[in-house]
Amino acid sequence: MTIKIKTPEEIEKLRVAGKLAADVLEMIAPYVIPGASTGELNAIMHKYMTEEQGTIPATLNYHGFPASSCISINQVVCHGIPDDKKTLKKGDIVNIDVTVIKEGYHGDTSRMFEVGEVKPFASRLSKVAHECLWLGIEQVKPNATLYDVAYAIQQHAEKNNYSVVREYCGHGIGSEFHEDPQVLHYAAPELKDIVLKPGMVFTIEPMINQGKAPVKVLGDNWTVVTKDRKLSAQWEHTLTVTETGYEIFTLRTNEKPVLP
Fold first, then answer.
1. Is the bond leading into 181 cis (omega within 30 degrees of zero)?
2. What is the DSSP letter of 228?
3. Residue 136's domain is classified under what CATH number?
4. 237-241 and 201-204: which strand pairing?
5. In this predicted model, what pLDDT tens digit does every residue of 158-169 receive, in sequence order?
6. Counted domains in the chain
């Protein structure tokens, strides 16, 4: 495993790309309403990325993925394919995941949206998943390990009677979309060997399930759903390890830590 330590010049490019990715999620928020189709949302984001920002949507044609974003509704854990025929309904919880490329560097982020008024149990899942992200981020500092990050996430999810998806995880990121290390969100012992150093850049993106952890991939070879068809929620940020802690590249305007 080779974990790249980014130079100050690379960090600056990642900072720019991260901010642009955050801007996409802010821009799309008013459109996430009952009756909107996921295909329509994807088209709006694609146009914004390519025409307004001058960014490249990293997911488009990535290993054959057919869209400029992943939009995952309710029991869809990740990699939901936007579709003009798939419309949002009142009560849905939705993850929108975008990655932009600017000057060869990637910014990757996702967040949950609530469509209209949602059931309290759905809102609670989204909130706890958000807290899991922030509890993981709070562990990031030099000489901590990825085990510390994963342990904080898993503990909080399980304390709330939720489960953590194991098949999908965060990742190193830079000029490549996916680099070492793999950032698992459950406390696997091997993570104790991955010591954090300034200049490492990676995503933290826990997928938290209302029911059991197992997932399956649908026939389109992309869409991942919970096996028990219960809800799933995910939030994601891209960050770097600094000399004193962390810096998040994908913060949205006025975004503050969400801690329990």
1. yes
2. T
3. 3.90.230.10
4. antiparallel
5. 999 999 999 999
6. 1
